Amino acid sequence: MSAVHLSIEAGIAEIRLDNPAKLNALTLAMIEALETYANAIEADRSVRVMRLTAEGERAFCVGADIREWSALDPRGFARGWVRRGHRAFDRLAQLSVPTIAVLSGHAFGGGLELAAACDMRVMAPKATLALPETGVGIVPGWSGTQRLARELPPAVLKQMAFAGQRLSAERALELGFVNAVADNPRAEADAIAAKILTSASQAVEVTKCLLAAAFGEGGEACIEALAGAAMAASPEKDEGVAAFFEKRKPQFAGGGT
Fold first, then answer.
1. 133 carries an active-site annotation
2. 152 within 8 A of 171, measured Cβ to Cβ
3. How far apart are CA 10 and CA 26, in angstroms?
4. What is the pLDDT of residue 176?
5. Which parts of the chain fold into alpha helices (H)?
6. Is 255 exposed, middle or buried (0-12, 13-18, 19+ CB in 10 A)?
7. Is residue 174 annotated as part of the catalytic site, yes or no?
8. What is the mean pLDDT of residues 37-62?
9. Active-site residue among 113, 170, 174, 188?
10. Chain centre to alpha carbon of residue 77
11. Which comes out higher in pLDDT, residue 64 or 173?
Protein backbone atom coordinates (compact mmCIF):
# COMPACT_ATOMS: atom_id res chain seq x y z
CA MET A 1 0.00 0.00 0.00
CA SER A 2 1.37 3.38 -1.01
CA ALA A 3 2.17 5.90 1.71
CA VAL A 4 1.77 8.86 -0.69
CA HIS A 5 -1.27 9.54 -2.85
CA LEU A 6 -2.11 11.95 -5.68
CA SER A 7 -5.57 13.15 -6.64
CA ILE A 8 -6.60 15.86 -9.10
CA GLU A 9 -10.02 17.47 -9.14
CA ALA A 10 -11.40 20.78 -10.40
CA GLY A 11 -8.01 22.32 -11.03
CA ILE A 12 -6.54 21.35 -7.65
CA ALA A 13 -3.96 18.60 -7.23
CA GLU A 14 -3.47 17.09 -3.79
CA ILE A 15 -0.43 15.13 -2.66
CA ARG A 16 -1.22 13.36 0.59
CA LEU A 17 1.23 11.69 2.95
CA ASP A 18 -0.42 8.58 4.38
CA ASN A 19 1.68 6.90 7.04
CA PRO A 20 0.15 8.26 10.27
CA ALA A 21 1.24 5.25 12.33
CA LYS A 22 4.83 6.47 11.84
CA LEU A 23 3.84 10.14 11.97
CA ASN A 24 4.34 10.32 8.19
CA ALA A 25 8.11 9.82 8.50
CA LEU A 26 9.59 9.89 5.01
CA THR A 27 11.00 6.74 3.46
CA LEU A 28 12.94 6.60 0.20
CA ALA A 29 9.85 5.19 -1.52
CA MET A 30 7.83 8.17 -0.31
CA ILE A 31 10.48 10.60 -1.51
CA GLU A 32 10.49 9.00 -4.93
CA ALA A 33 6.68 9.14 -5.01
CA LEU A 34 6.79 12.87 -4.23
CA GLU A 35 9.03 13.47 -7.22
CA THR A 36 6.91 11.24 -9.48
CA TYR A 37 3.73 13.05 -8.50
CA ALA A 38 5.33 16.47 -8.90
CA ASN A 39 6.26 15.50 -12.46
CA ALA A 40 2.69 14.32 -13.09
CA ILE A 41 1.28 17.61 -11.80
CA GLU A 42 3.65 19.62 -13.99
CA ALA A 43 2.52 17.63 -17.05
CA ASP A 44 -1.20 18.11 -16.32
CA ARG A 45 -2.28 21.49 -17.70
CA SER A 46 -5.62 21.28 -15.89
CA VAL A 47 -3.87 21.75 -12.53
CA ARG A 48 -3.77 25.31 -11.23
CA VAL A 49 -2.99 24.78 -7.53
CA MET A 50 -1.27 22.01 -5.56
CA ARG A 51 -2.21 21.21 -1.97
CA LEU A 52 0.15 19.13 0.21
CA THR A 53 -1.58 17.36 3.11
CA ALA A 54 -0.98 14.49 5.52
CA GLU A 55 -3.09 11.93 7.35
CA GLY A 56 -3.41 12.29 11.10
CA GLU A 57 -3.51 15.29 13.41
CA ARG A 58 -0.41 14.55 15.50
CA ALA A 59 2.10 15.21 12.76
CA PHE A 60 2.25 16.57 9.24
CA CYS A 61 5.63 14.85 8.97
CA VAL A 62 8.33 14.20 11.57
CA GLY A 63 11.08 14.04 8.95
CA ALA A 64 13.17 11.24 7.55
CA ASP A 65 12.59 7.69 8.78
CA ILE A 66 15.63 7.01 10.97
CA ARG A 67 15.30 3.28 10.35
CA GLU A 68 16.05 3.85 6.67
CA TRP A 69 18.99 6.24 6.84
CA SER A 70 20.76 5.21 10.04
CA ALA A 71 22.43 2.15 8.50
CA LEU A 72 23.68 3.91 5.36
CA ASP A 73 27.41 4.40 4.84
CA PRO A 74 28.61 8.00 4.24
CA ARG A 75 28.48 7.73 0.44
CA GLY A 76 25.07 6.10 0.46
CA PHE A 77 23.79 8.74 2.87
CA ALA A 78 25.07 11.61 0.70
CA ARG A 79 24.11 10.21 -2.69
CA GLY A 80 21.13 8.00 -2.04
CA TRP A 81 19.46 9.89 0.75
CA VAL A 82 20.38 13.58 0.79
CA ARG A 83 20.59 14.10 -2.97
CA ARG A 84 17.39 12.20 -3.74
CA GLY A 85 15.53 14.18 -1.13
CA HIS A 86 16.87 17.43 -2.55
CA ARG A 87 15.83 16.43 -6.04
CA ALA A 88 12.26 15.65 -4.95
CA PHE A 89 11.89 18.75 -2.80
CA ASP A 90 13.38 21.00 -5.49
CA ARG A 91 10.94 19.53 -7.99
CA LEU A 92 8.05 20.46 -5.70
CA ALA A 93 9.47 23.92 -5.04
CA GLN A 94 9.77 24.63 -8.75
CA LEU A 95 6.30 23.55 -9.81
CA SER A 96 4.73 26.09 -12.15
CA VAL A 97 1.54 26.32 -10.09
CA PRO A 98 1.14 27.76 -6.57
CA THR A 99 1.49 25.23 -3.77
CA ILE A 100 0.03 25.16 -0.25
CA ALA A 101 1.17 22.97 2.65
CA VAL A 102 -1.51 22.07 5.19
CA LEU A 103 0.14 21.49 8.58
CA SER A 104 -2.45 19.83 10.77
CA GLY A 105 0.30 18.59 13.08
CA HIS A 106 3.99 18.95 13.82
CA ALA A 107 6.55 19.42 11.03
CA PHE A 108 10.02 18.37 12.11
CA GLY A 109 13.27 18.03 10.18
CA GLY A 110 12.51 16.83 6.68
CA GLY A 111 8.83 17.55 7.30
CA LEU A 112 9.61 21.20 7.90
CA GLU A 113 11.88 21.23 4.85
CA LEU A 114 9.06 19.70 2.81
CA ALA A 115 6.65 22.40 3.98
CA ALA A 116 9.24 25.05 3.16
CA ALA A 117 9.31 23.79 -0.43
CA CYS A 118 5.72 25.00 -0.82
CA ASP A 119 4.76 28.60 -1.62
CA MET A 120 2.31 28.98 1.24
CA ARG A 121 1.60 27.23 4.53
CA VAL A 122 -1.38 26.98 6.88
CA MET A 123 -0.94 25.57 10.41
CA ALA A 124 -3.13 24.19 13.15
CA PRO A 125 -2.79 26.12 16.45
CA LYS A 126 -1.07 23.26 18.30
CA ALA A 127 1.33 22.35 15.49
CA THR A 128 5.00 23.22 15.92
CA LEU A 129 8.06 23.40 13.69
CA ALA A 130 11.53 22.09 14.55
CA LEU A 131 14.93 21.01 13.21
CA PRO A 132 16.01 18.22 15.58
CA GLU A 133 18.86 16.84 13.44
CA THR A 134 21.80 17.89 15.63
CA GLY A 135 20.18 16.03 18.52
CA VAL A 136 20.76 12.72 16.70
CA GLY A 137 24.19 13.61 15.36
CA ILE A 138 23.39 14.77 11.85
CA VAL A 139 22.61 18.06 10.10
CA PRO A 140 19.55 19.30 8.18
CA GLY A 141 19.87 17.62 4.80
CA TRP A 142 16.98 18.66 2.58
CA SER A 143 17.59 22.42 2.45
CA GLY A 144 17.05 23.20 6.12
CA THR A 145 20.19 25.32 6.03
CA GLN A 146 19.54 26.73 2.56
CA ARG A 147 15.90 27.26 1.55
CA LEU A 148 14.84 27.85 5.14
CA ALA A 149 17.58 30.48 5.43
CA ARG A 150 15.63 32.49 2.86
CA GLU A 151 12.35 32.08 4.73
CA LEU A 152 13.19 32.51 8.43
CA PRO A 153 15.21 35.17 10.30
CA PRO A 154 18.84 34.08 10.87
CA ALA A 155 18.73 34.15 14.67
CA VAL A 156 15.51 32.11 14.77
CA LEU A 157 16.79 29.51 12.30
CA LYS A 158 20.11 29.19 14.12
CA GLN A 159 18.43 28.50 17.45
CA MET A 160 16.23 25.90 15.77
CA ALA A 161 19.17 24.25 13.99
CA PHE A 162 21.70 24.43 16.85
CA ALA A 163 19.45 23.66 19.81
CA GLY A 164 16.33 22.03 18.36
CA GLN A 165 14.15 24.94 19.50
CA ARG A 166 10.54 24.48 18.46
CA LEU A 167 8.64 27.24 16.71
CA SER A 168 4.97 27.63 17.62
CA ALA A 169 2.26 28.25 15.07
CA GLU A 170 1.67 31.74 16.44
CA ARG A 171 5.36 32.61 16.22
CA ALA A 172 5.59 31.19 12.70
CA LEU A 173 2.68 33.40 11.69
CA GLU A 174 4.29 36.42 13.31
CA LEU A 175 7.50 35.76 11.35
CA GLY A 176 5.60 35.43 8.08
CA PHE A 177 6.53 31.79 7.53
CA VAL A 178 2.89 30.69 7.50
CA ASN A 179 -0.09 32.43 5.92
CA ALA A 180 -2.62 31.52 8.57
CA VAL A 181 -3.20 29.61 11.79
CA ALA A 182 -6.59 27.94 11.83
CA ASP A 183 -8.48 25.25 13.73
CA ASN A 184 -9.29 23.76 10.34
CA PRO A 185 -6.14 24.38 8.27
CA ARG A 186 -7.49 22.31 5.39
CA ALA A 187 -10.51 24.61 5.02
CA GLU A 188 -8.24 27.65 5.21
CA ALA A 189 -6.01 26.22 2.48
CA ASP A 190 -9.08 25.47 0.37
CA ALA A 191 -10.16 29.10 0.68
CA ILE A 192 -6.74 30.28 -0.52
CA ALA A 193 -6.86 27.81 -3.41
CA ALA A 194 -10.38 28.92 -4.38
CA LYS A 195 -9.21 32.53 -4.54
CA ILE A 196 -6.25 31.59 -6.73
CA LEU A 197 -8.62 29.80 -9.10
CA THR A 198 -10.44 33.08 -9.73
CA SER A 199 -7.23 34.69 -11.03
CA ALA A 200 -5.91 34.42 -14.58
CA SER A 201 -4.04 31.12 -14.74
CA GLN A 202 -1.20 32.20 -17.04
CA ALA A 203 -0.70 35.43 -15.13
CA VAL A 204 -0.44 33.46 -11.87
CA GLU A 205 2.06 31.07 -13.41
CA VAL A 206 4.27 33.86 -14.76
CA THR A 207 4.02 35.75 -11.46
CA LYS A 208 5.12 32.66 -9.54
CA CYS A 209 8.07 32.30 -11.90
CA LEU A 210 9.11 35.92 -11.37
CA LEU A 211 8.77 35.69 -7.59
CA ALA A 212 10.70 32.42 -7.51
CA ALA A 213 13.57 34.11 -9.33
CA ALA A 214 13.47 37.02 -6.89
CA PHE A 215 13.60 34.61 -3.94
CA GLY A 216 16.46 32.59 -5.42
CA GLU A 217 14.38 29.54 -6.33
CA GLY A 218 15.22 28.36 -9.85
CA GLY A 219 15.91 31.81 -11.27
CA GLU A 220 17.96 30.58 -14.22
CA ALA A 221 15.20 28.25 -15.38
CA CYS A 222 12.63 31.00 -14.86
CA ILE A 223 14.44 33.46 -17.11
CA GLU A 224 14.86 30.93 -19.90
CA ALA A 225 11.29 29.64 -19.54
CA LEU A 226 9.84 33.14 -19.91
CA ALA A 227 12.14 33.95 -22.81
CA GLY A 228 11.35 30.63 -24.45
CA ALA A 229 7.61 31.20 -24.12
CA ALA A 230 7.94 34.66 -25.67
CA MET A 231 9.86 33.32 -28.65
CA ALA A 232 7.52 30.34 -29.04
CA ALA A 233 4.73 32.87 -29.68
CA SER A 234 6.75 34.87 -32.23
CA PRO A 235 6.48 34.86 -36.04
CA GLU A 236 10.24 34.26 -36.13
CA LYS A 237 9.79 30.87 -34.50
CA ASP A 238 7.07 29.97 -37.00
CA GLU A 239 9.29 30.99 -39.92
CA GLY A 240 12.35 29.22 -38.53
CA VAL A 241 10.50 25.95 -37.98
CA ALA A 242 8.82 26.14 -41.40
CA ALA A 243 12.16 26.77 -43.09
CA PHE A 244 13.72 23.81 -41.28
CA PHE A 245 11.06 21.39 -42.50
CA GLU A 246 11.03 22.91 -46.02
CA LYS A 247 14.83 22.67 -46.18
CA ARG A 248 15.34 26.34 -47.06
CA LYS A 249 16.90 29.39 -45.49
CA PRO A 250 14.53 31.25 -43.17
CA GLN A 251 13.37 34.71 -44.17
CA PHE A 252 13.03 36.63 -40.94
CA ALA A 253 11.24 39.99 -40.89
CA GLY A 254 14.39 41.72 -39.64
CA GLY A 255 16.44 40.36 -42.52
CA GLY A 256 18.42 37.78 -40.53
CA THR A 257 19.02 34.27 -41.81
1. yes
2. no
3. 28
4. 98
5. 28-43, 66-69, 74-76, 83-93, 110-116, 154-163, 169-174, 185-197, 201-214, 219-232, 235-246
6. exposed
7. no
8. 97
9. 113
10. 22
11. 173
